[in-house]
Amino acid sequence: xxxxxxxxxxxxxxxxxxxxxxxxxxxxxxxxxxxxxLAKIDRHPMVSSAMLDIANHASLVRAIKGKFxxxxxxxxxxxxQIAKAALKADAHYLDLTEDxxxxxxxxxxxxxxxxAFIPQCGLxxxxxxxxxxxxxxxFDNLDSVRMRVGALPRYPSNALTYNLTWNTDGLINEYIExxxxxxxxxxxxxxxxxxREELSLDGVTYEAFNTSGGLGTLARTLNGKxxxxxxxxxxxxxHQAIIKALLNDLNLKNRRHVLKDLFENALPATMxxxxxxxxTVCGWRNVSYVQETYANKIYxxxxxxxxxxxxxxxTAAGIATILDLLAQERLPAKGFVRQEEIALKEFLGNRFxxxxxxxVMPMRHVG
Length: 367
Fold this sequence. Notes:
Strand order of the largest sheet: 3-2-1-4-5-6-17
Number of strands: 17
Order of helices and strands: EHEHEHEHEHEHEHEEEEHEHHEEEEHEH
Helix content: 25-40%
Structural class: alpha/beta
Low-confidence stretches: 361-367
Number of helices: 12
Largest sheet: 7 strands, parallel
Radius of gyration: 20 Å
């Protein structure tokens, strides 16, 4: 029995708690400063809740002390505080952050850690890095790595062809912050919302454009080994043009609170979503120039006896899988652990990671 602390009682935090508790192998405490959010957590004999203010460092350390691991499902700007408390409390640390600066801060903290510090354990960054790294291992020499991921409504009904499916602050951060990429063999920074392209999967046309954070640490791992590498978010055609108008023409990139208010009061949330993953690697194998592609769609469904959206399933399953592998001593137990250090076969063979396998459907579609 492993005791786990989850910080953040939102949609993702509650989904993680349900998945872990359903196994009977984890005793979970979900903490949040909002009593309203905690009240929404499904009752389960293996799940308890606790009011906690992350700003109070001493209280946070006391809450984590004695736990096997702390999992951050809090907004990206709070994860650094949680990581520092985990270091002080001598607990393993995992998070879902897509924020580049935060991940570099956690990597620095992990240099002196006696426990594992594993950021970016969600979908993108996270699973997509594990997939891309697995594809690259099949080549003698690499040319390009292109990673594309989107969490989309199945039934879009507005001009943005979009519904809110996850944390609004994280979404806005991806749309505004600089993006890492490898261009002609050099690790560089490129602008978010640029370099639009179109792609097709199962007869559906999508657009994709630069967003921040999706490469995780894989760009630095492959730096000097690949000519071109980039990450782009998938949306339905037309989304990028409207978002760019909001960010640039109306200057909402410098008024994030206004943009957040608009999104949360004009774009309805939905449980009827689909996660699209499209990773393509080109390079040389046995002198021939070849391409390998991973393409997958994951839908909303029932997991751990709960109706979960596709983004809840993929994100919660990602961090639950990494925790499970850590608990089974199949990952390094101290220091900084990169997503690309995790074998795709190990991930998909895990009881949580199986939701990503196109050959296994442990849920029924909802909606």
